[in-house]
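step=encode ok
step=design start
structure_in=
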């Protein structure tokens, strides 16, 4: 009872934080205004190519909901390409979705409202984490994340917001040196989208080699395995019992091995301009190499630095690149900016702002109009049919790649001198 009272008092003190209230209110109003404008302009936007490409993923969810609302079970009665927790999330969301013909606006705004609510929660979590790192910059950086163009344009029609929630809660516990709970929430997150699994690996590499915690890995493996079994085994058993095979469950994991490459990648640009070079294998292999390097190089770096490196490595030269993937590492980049000193924090800040702008120029803006120019996507289409928007699209992807390389380079050049860094940060705060 005493512990409960202490926790309630602590929660009450957090809730009274005026800057936290400002961040939450700003994010809530921003999302509300954005959704309001989108609602008002919906009929006009429906005829524009940008909207069609922006909401393309929603067509898939509609098909999913059509099946679940008939009583069918994902991974059992039909296959589904995303991990089990995402299936459970959208199964739950289906209870609030009206699939009446012609209700596209209702579907989009119900989904957008749910994800926007998660964005408000995420902004609050980011503020609380930033307050632990650098109170002076906490409000500014939390608001900058909430106002991200990538978040405004794409979060309402994707489910990155849900993954980010688990990533942030896991990081909060990591910051508090509670590895069990960090692993617990990152393990849940990876069954929405896989990237938080690599946070677990990076944290364990540092714990083992740098912090000399030689037995922590066993607890981590047990925790991750237990959650994996809990979320997968029921679907496996039901699928086998009903179908005599595991095909509908296995599709979740086999789909991504044969998934066609994304056009908004360096590989996609190569095909658009130069034909069909045999680079897909190179892209796969280079991604494995880059992610391995991101984990093993500079193992002494803090997890926020490693998190940014891991996420960038996973998309830098991959076959698959969706612009909303930037939301994976934006919060951790805020945590990096919060503790950087001298000119470095300004470099990181400007790189974040510019890469975020270029990211939405790539998609949905220039992508939509480049397709209109090229009359589709295919080998040599850019060279043979492309015009000004195709050039903008090409230069934006190349620029984005260089900017991500710049962020990674700055992180790898980080000096790891905890005492010196803490002293300098304290001086900065006093000034």
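sequence_out=
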């Amino acid at each position: 009872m005493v512990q409960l009272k202490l926790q309630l008092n602590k929660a009450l003190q957090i809730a009274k934080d005026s800057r936290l209230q400002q961040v939450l209110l700003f994010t809530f109003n921003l999302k509300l205004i954005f959704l309001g404008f989108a609602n008002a302009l919906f009929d006009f936007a429906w005829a524009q190519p940008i909207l069609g490409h922006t909401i393309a993923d929603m067509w898939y969810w509609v098909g999913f909901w059509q099946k679940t609302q008939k009583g069918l079970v994902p991974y059992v009665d039909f296959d589904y390409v995303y991990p089990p927790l995402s299936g459970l999330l959208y199964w739950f969301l289906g209870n609030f979705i009206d699939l009446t013909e012609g209700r596209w606006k209702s579907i989009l705004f119900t989904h957008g409202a749910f994800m926007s609510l998660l964005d408000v929660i995420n902004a609050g979590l980011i503020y609380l984490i930033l307050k632990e790192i650098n109170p002076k910059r906490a409000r500014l950086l939390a608001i900058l994340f909430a106002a991200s163009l990538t978040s405004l344009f794409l979060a309402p029609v994707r489910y990155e917001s849900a993954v980010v929630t688990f990533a942030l809660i896991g990081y909060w516990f990591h910051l508090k040196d509670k590895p069990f709970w960090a692993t617990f929430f990152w393990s849940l997150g990876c069954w929405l989208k896989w990237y938080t699994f690599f946070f677990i690996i990076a944290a364990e590499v540092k714990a083992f080699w740098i912090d000399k915690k030689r037995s922590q890995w066993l607890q981590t493996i047990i925790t991750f395995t237990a959650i994996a079994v809990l979320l997968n085994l029921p679907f496996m058993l039901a699928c086998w019992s009903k179908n005599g095979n595991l095909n509908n469950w296995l599709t979740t994991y086999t789909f991504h091995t044969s998934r066609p490459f994304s056009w908004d990648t360096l590989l996609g640009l190569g095909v658009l301009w130069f034909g069909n070079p045999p680079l897909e294998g190179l892209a796969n292999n280079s991604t494995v190499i880059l992610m391995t390097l991101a984990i093993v190089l500079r193992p002494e770096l803090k997890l926020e630095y490693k998190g940014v490196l891991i996420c960038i490595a996973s998309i830098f030269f991959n076959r698959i690149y969706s612009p909303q993937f930037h939301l994976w590492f934006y919060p951790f980049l805020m945590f990096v900016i919060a503790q950087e000193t001298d000119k470095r924090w300004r470099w990181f800040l400007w790189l974040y702002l510019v890469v975020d702008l270029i990211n939405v120029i790539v998609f949905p803006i220039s992508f939509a109009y480049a397709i209109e120019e090229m009359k589709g996507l295919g080998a040599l289409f850019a060279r043979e049919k492309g015009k000004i928007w195709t050039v903008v699209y090409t230069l934006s992807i190349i620029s984005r790649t260089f900017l991500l390389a710049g962020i990674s380079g700055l992180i790898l050049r980080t000096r790891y001198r905890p005492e010196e860094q803490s002293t300098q940060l304290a001086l900065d705060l006093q000034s």
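step=design ok
step=annotate ok -> Residues 16-258 form one domain.
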